[in-house]
Write a structure and sequence with these properties.
The structure is a single chain. By secondary structure, the protein is an alpha+beta fold. It has 3 domains: 9-170; 191-240, SH3 type barrels; 249-330, Alpha-Beta Plaits (2-Layer Sandwich), CATH 3.30.70. It is built from 10 helices and 8 strands. The protein has helices at residues 2-8, 12-42, 49-74, 81-115, 128-150, 155-172, 174-189, 230-234, 263-275, 312-330, and strands at residues 197-200, 205-211, 215-219, 225-229, 238-240, 249-258, 287-293, 297-306. The protein has a 5-stranded antiparallel sheet with strand order 4-3-2-1-5. A 3-stranded antiparallel sheet has the order 6-8-7, covered by helices on one side. The protein is elongated and about 140 Å long.
Length: 371
């Protein structure tokens, strides 16, 4: 029986089959008891990142053990050089693709965990799309390089050709590359984020709806979406109305009262308008300031805080209406522009000159010139 057992392993196909069975057993062992053991050990940690990583690694480890067993089995088979080349290249390509997908998934989990940590936020949430794209490009590029090596392709010649083609594409698509680099700097510097209200020095104002690698989209108050290249935004002045400690914004209503008006009464009327307006915050409460002596009247300013920048137009319309009505009821005059013209003197009157002889008939002798 012992000799028959040895004779069973004397053939290449029997040894290959035994190696495949052993690799399958190891694969099921890694996927079953060992993975449960690692999951049980990871439950003692405060973070759930290790639990998710172990769950993601179960299938690729199982597939990798099976593929490695298949590669070990092929060594015991008498295959031709062409068949061995194709078999080993396909198995290596499968290993690379499996771990490329696994690496992308683990990288996404790691980036999310770094951005959602309650104690220290190492990655800003706004950078997640950029870092995700960079990680995917690196993973796919590395996988493509390993696949080419597994098929014994001369990578140096490909890299040289890619460099020449890259230079030509760079000159042809310089505007696109400028937008890409500008989008990278916008995502890292973060002068605004999605949902902010921004003003550009070119006159556009609206809410940011999307920040892409090539362009930024803003939604105006006219329900029109504008797509602006990132290179244009990167070189322009940006006013972020939603930036700062909070999103609320202060509005100002400037009004003039005629000279001779009661200043305390004007203050009281304006303050009552601000306190009775439901769109203004009461903490901090509205304020009234006597700004200057104008050309036609006393310049006052009512200031208050609103919840969001997009409400500024409606709130200013309501405040202007209420201020005008309140001034009419209180008898406070809103002056209009008046200008006094002082004439220092008239120019001297020119003396009258007698007419010359050739200008008309001689009135001293009416008989001359008449028949």
């Amino acid at each position: 029986m012992y000799k028959s057992f040895l004779e069973l392993f004397s053939t290449p196909w029997s040894r290959a089959g035994v190696l495949m069975l052993v690799s399958l057993g190891l694969a099921f062992l890694c996927r079953g008891p060992l993975s449960r053991l690692f999951l049980w050990l990871s439950r003692g940690t405060q973070s759930d990142l290790d639990d998710q990583v172990v769950s993601e690694l179960r299938r690729p480890i199982f597939s990798s053990v099976v593929l490695l067993g298949a590669m070990a089995s092929l060594f015991h088979l008498e295959l031709s050089s062409t068949a061995a080349y194709w078999c080993f290249s396909l198995l290596k390509t499968g290993l690379v693709l499996i771990w490329m997908v696994t690496g992308i998934r683990v990288m996404v989990l790691l980036l999310r965990w770094l951005s959602e940590r309650p104690d220290v936020q190492l990655v800003q949430p706004r950078l997640l799309p950029l870092l995700d794209n960079v990680a995917r490009v690196i993973m796919v590029g590395g996988a493509a390089y390993l696949v080419l090596l597994s098929w014994h392709v001369d990578v140096a010649a490909w890299l040289t050709s890619a460099g020449i083609v890259g230079i030509a594409i760079g000159f042809a698509a310089k505007d696109t590359l400028a937008n890409l680099f500008a989008g990278f700097f916008i995502l890292t510097d973060a002068p605004y984020k999605v949902g902010d209200y921004i003003n550009l020095d070119s006159g556009e104002r609206g809410q940011v709806t999307d920040i892409g690698i090539r362009s930024t989209r803003i939604f105006t108050r006219d329900d029109v979406e504008i797509t602006i290249p990132n290179s244009t935004i990167a070189s322009s002045k940006i006013i972020n109305e939603s930036g700062g400690k909070w999103e609320r914004e202060r509005v100002r209503v400037t009004v003039e009262a005629a000279y001779g008006s009661d200043i305390d009464k004007v203050r009281e009327v304006l303050l009552n308008v601000g306190l009775n307006n439901p769109s203004l915050y009461q903490d901090p409460e509205p304020r009234v300031r006597f700004r200057s002596f104008g050309a036609s009247g006393l310049v006052f300013q009512l200031m208050g805080w609103i919840e969001r920048p997009e409400k500024r137009g409606r709130v200013l319309d309501a405040l202007n209406t209420e201020v005008y009505k309140a001034f009419q009821q209180a008898g406070i005059e809103i002056p209009f522009s008046q200008h006094d013209l002082w004439i220092r003197g008239w120019p001297p009157k020119k003396p009258e000159t007698p007419p010359s002889e050739g200008d008309g008939p001689n009135v001293s002798n009416p008989e001359e010139g008449s028949d």
